[in-house]
Amino acid sequence: MITFLRYLSTMAPIVKSYDYLVIGGGSGGLASARRAAEFGIKAAVIEHARWGGTCVNVGCVPKKVMFNTAVHAEMIHDHKDYGFNVTLNKFDWSVIKKSRDDYIKRLNGIYEANLDKSKVDRIVGNASFTSDGCVEVNGQKYSGKHVLIATGGRPIVHKIPGYEFGITSDGFFDLEDLPKKTVVVGAGYIAVELAGILNALGSDVSIMIRYDKTLRTFDSMISSAVTEELEAAGVKVLRQTQTNSVTKDVDGTLTLDTTKGPIRGVDCLLWAIGRVPNVEIGLDKVGVKLDGKGNVQVDAFQNTSAPNIYSLGDVCGRALLTPVAIAAGRRLAHRVFNNENDLKLDYDNIPTVVFSHPPVATIGLTEEEAVKNYGADKIKTYKSSFTPMYHAVTERKTKCHMKMICLLPEEKILGIHMIGMGCDEMMQGFSVAIKMGATKNDFDNTVAIHPTSSEELVTMR
Question: Taking the model in full, what pTM does it have?
Answer without folding.
Answer: 0.95
